[in-house]
Structures are given as structure tokens and as C-alpha cells.
User: What shape does this take?
Amino acid sequence: MMTLLIAQIAAHALGAPTGVPLDAEGLYWAELPEGVPAPPVPDDVAPLEGGTVTCELVDYLDCSNTEPIDTDEAGSRVIELLDQPYRVTSASRELGWFSYEMDCRPIPGRPHLLIAQLPDDRERYTSITLTCPDGWTWAPPYEGEEEFKPDNQEEDGVSQDVGGAVYTGREIPLTDEPFVYPLLFYPKTGRMKVTIAHYGSEEVMEDESGAAVARLWMLAIDEPLPPAPVPEDPERRIGLYVPHPWYLLGHYGCPARTAEQRERGLRAFVEYMRFCGFNLLQLHIINGSDRAGIAWYESEYFDPMPVSLVEELLPLCDEAGIEVAPILTPVLGGHPDINGTNPGEWGPQDWEGDSFQRDVDGRGFVAAFGACVPDPLRPEVQEFYADCVDEIATVCAPYDCVKQIGIRVNGKIGLCYVSRELNEGAQHSGYSEWDLREFREATGIEVPPAQEGAYEWLRERPDAWDEWLEFRCAGTRDLWLMLRDRVRSAREDLTFLVACDLPSETPATNAHWPAGHSALDLLRYHGYDPRMYTEDEGIVVQRGMMVAADRFFYKWGPPITHGDNAWALKDFHYQPVLAREYYRTAEPSQAEFYHNYWEEVPHPDNEFGPTLRTATASPRGWHYFEPAVFSLLEGNCRSLLFMGWERASIGHEPELRQWCGDFLSIPYVEPSPLDRRTRLDSRWGRAQARRYGDARVVASTDHRGGTMVIRQGAGREWEDRHISLRPFEVHVEEARR
Assistant: This one.
């Protein structure tokens, strides 16, 4: 036997005893039998505080020598890459995949670790999906629970499980070395189906392109996951944004039929949060997707789920010290006919036609997902949102862990003026006769009716156009502040959260911004003028940054709207003005990293409909923290959220344990430059340094990482100290703990 140390996100064969000292290098340990190789170890392995996790090898596959149990029509091939054979999907813009089954040793609420060895030799996209094979029953003691069909979007409690996607290349330097992608997951059955798939977004498709996997290791973890070594009572917050709360019940190894089962699974989730170092959770308490429909508590306004996450999850978060922000998603109305002239069944509260946004001609309805989008300025719409926020605040206020109550403002869905495709942005929405009449009465500007060219008339008169945008933005601010007051009436220390996905990725970000529309213009088109909120207390406007959208939509390319200027889907969000000025209130700032849903069709292990599967895409290793470092340095954000349709942290748990601990150790104060007796020199790579109170922070801002020299002294008396940083690592000294 030999002992395997999985250090950070890699592994190394050691001649060490089975007993593992707590100061050992790495996180996961396991014993491998003779003949089973250890995963490759990178050069940047460093000690990891906070204990280790002992694993046991359950199964191992050499993919180059093992035929898949299933594959797409094109099939897979074995190719020599980096002096080793890899099994590779087809090189195509269409989805390619192959599947294996691997043994597990499931214990409810305890995780497994799947390690995949991948090559970092070119731009690649690899998703790995974990599902329960057909015919397998739930593991003891829950045999037979697979017959239960829970009330959720999947209508399936056992077979669907978590997946992740990892990408390499482009701006991320290639190492020309193998690397490992570790997926921490919670198996439900004695075998799991592992599907490797490829989404063809490469800038250049080569003969050797595709998802490539050399070997797979399946390891069981029987012991509790140790909490990350984070400071007590930190001033900052970091965690997960969960848009689909069913996954809190469906992805942690336990059924969801009884209260005992749900508690076991939810406790596993809370343990996972603390293992990563997270102390913040945001979730859609209404519906669980990106538009409203159902409630995760007993609601007067929406059909309730049979499970109340308010009653079952919030007490566990109270106990664990995890803050929670319940969020109301956008409410949509009926479905218009094919011409968009009939809204179908009205929405809540018997809304009428002008309750919904109209096109520039004043006739057609603006739709999202085929349903009419409410006009945020209409009194009946505002009243309904206020009732919903009142209800959420009332049921959640008794729990100490709840510090914020929020709404989702999405540039494609609502509650704002929304964009559509084909160059119709939010500036083209909201032209009902009621809107125009209210504008005339408020400003005295005699804009003509929509059918007579109101939009063109306004655009030809810059002052009138600015007044029109100002009118809409002021009405939005009145709504948000009214909702803030409703929240605070339930508990005076609650903060109102506006979780923003603004502007729309298309056409605002990838068409109008490259064409010269400023970021401020695009936000104002949606009804949000950030200059109006800088002095407002009790409200946080959370900045959303898209992650991997530039890669996901690249495949489509022109003339498909999403594929135009795909580069802009990333570059837009790295404008410093967004972090410094455009999401500022009197409260501490927050940022969300929206990992684009990696939608794969036709996937053999579907989640939604007959062929659709999603996975949360992120770059390999420490490159994951690029938006977080930007948000810290440019926006000094107090709170950071990783958001994905599935678990946005999957594959990055070891790095998160260190990164979260460093971030949470930084005092929440306005940063200042280093004092004159301290300098930062870059030997290679880029970094920035700041003082945050009594903490000195050096952060890598480079995909290469770097070696920095901290020089301290005066005159001729200088002392040099070298520090090495991984890409987007944060180094903290003299921090309060």
C-alpha cells in the first residue's frame, strides 16, 4: 500500500504513515493499492491549515483502457496527450460525451470525492456529471425512497445529481501539464454514472480538441468535513447564491420525503458551507428558478412547496452562524399570442393590459420566456411586490440569521424594464399609454402617443429623452425605497437587497455597449440610475458579474444575437467604474459572480425536458478568483457571492478554504496605500497592495500569479521579503483574527 496525499487540488505519492499530522501539507488523504497511480501534483502546492480529510479508494478507472458504457454517435477516441493516453470526446461544436459507471460506498450525508485527471494543453471544455444509474435503489437505510416523486422541477428525487464544468486556455496560460479536477459530491446509490461531455466553444477547433480524461479516482469520505480555519466574528461575508433551492435537498445524499431525511441532508449542506469557509447564503425563497411561481414556505400569494425551508433550514443556519438572504424572483404574467398582442391569462391580482410592459408601438407586449413582463411603475404591480416582500419579511424576521430580504432584478426578466434579442434593449420597453400619460403629467413634455412615434420623438430630442429616462429611474427608486421601508417595518435592523443581473447580456452588453452606449446609459435604460442611491440607508444594490458567458456564447457566434461580440460578455463587467461608483449606497457593497449556466443539449442525463442538462462552468484552479479579487480591490466589497444553477463552488473547495480565510481576515474599512516605509516590487506577474486598518493585503491580479518583494525600511536600511502568489491569491499580514 502507499499513502496518497491530495494536496490542494492535486495529489502526491508519499511514503508517510497512515496517521496524518494536522499540519500536513494538503487536505485529502487516502491509501492506494499497489498498481493504482496517484494523481499528478502541481508545482504550487502549499500547506493548507485546518486539518485533513481521510479518504478511502472505492474505484479507479484508466479511461484510455476502459471502454465507456455509453457514448454519443461520433464516439470517443484515445489520443496521446502530454506523453500519456487520454480518452477524448469528438472534436465538434455539437455536444460530445461518454459515460462510465463507478462504485461508491454511500453513507447518507457523507460525501465522496471524484478526481479526474485532465490535460492543460490547449483550450478545452470539460463537464463531468454525476447521476444515479437506472435501476439502482437508494442506499441503506433509504431503500425504496426512489419510488417517491417529490414536488420539484425535476419530479425526480434520486437520479439527478450535481455536475461541474472546467475550462482552460485563452487568457489562462497553459502549463502543458496534467491537472486534476476534484468534485466533492454526495452519492445516493451504490454506483454512480459519470458522464464526461464537451461543449464546443473553442476559438480554434483542432483535431485533438474535446473533453479529455486520462484517469478517474473515486474516494469515499466517512468522517465529518472539518470547518475551514476562518476568523471568529469576521466583518466580511462570503458564500453561495442558490437560485434553485431544491438542490439544497436534492444534492446532499438524502431523500426529502420526511423531516428526518431533510434535516440530515440540510445538515450536510451546512457542514459543506462551513468546510468551504462560507458564512453567507442567498436563495430564491419564491420559486427556486429565475422567475416566480412557487414558495418555499406557506404563502398567500404563491402555491407553496410541501417543504418549508424557512422552518427547516433557517434554524440550522442560526445554529451555524451562516447569514441568509431570502429573495423574491421576478413575477411574470400570462403568455401572449404569437404576435404578442394578447397577454393571455392575466397575472396576479387580476392585472390588466397596461400592467405589463409594451413595445415602442404601444401595442405588443414585452415577453420573457414567452410570458408578459410587468411594468415596474404600475401601482398594482408595486402593491403586489410590496405584499410579497411583507410576507417574506414577516415569516423570516424571527430568525437571527436573516439580515437581508431581497428582490431579483434581471435585465431579461424583471422587475425592471427588460431587453429582448435582435437589438431591442430595455430602452424599447415600457411605452403603454399609461406610462406616457404619467410622464406628460410629471414633466409637462407633450410626447405623442406610442402609435404615433413616441420613441422616435423622444430620441430626436436629447433633453426630453434624458427626462424620460430620469422619470423611469425615479419611479424605480421610489419603488425600491418603499420596499425597503416594508422590510424594515418587520424588523428595523433588516436591510433591503436588490440582487442585480444588469444590464441584459443581450443586446445591452454584447451589442449596445460595443456600439458606444455607456454602462450608465445601459443601466438607466433598465430603470436603474446608480447616482440616485449613494446616500440611501437600509438598501444594498448588489452588483452581478457574469462568469464564462463569453465562452458559453462564443460557440453560437454571429448572426445569433448572443454570440455577437462574445468577448464583451466578460469585459463589460471588469470596468472599474461599475465596482467603484455604480453599485454604491450608504450600506456596504456586495458582488455576485454569476457562473453562466453551461446548458448542454442533447445530454443523456437530462435535468429539464427530454435532453437538457446544466453544469456550473469555471476556470481551473485559482483562476476561479479573478472576479473576487477585482471586487475586493476595486469595490472593497464587504460581501461576495458565488452563484450557479448548481453548486457554484464545486471543484474549488480546497482553494476556497484558504481564500475565504484570507478574505474574512481583512477588516472592513476603506483601504489606503502602503505607508512610505513599505514598497511592493513585482519580480514577475502583477499584484496590488493595500492597507485595510491594521492588515496589509497583497493580491495577485494576474493569471500567471507572481513573485513579489515586500521592501520595508528607510534610507539605506531596507529589508526585502519575497512572497509567491498563485493567480488571484490574496496574501494578508498583521490581520486581526
About this structure: Confidence is low (pLDDT under 50) at residues 1-25, 43-47. The first helix runs from residue 246 to 250. The two ends are 41 Å apart (CA to CA).
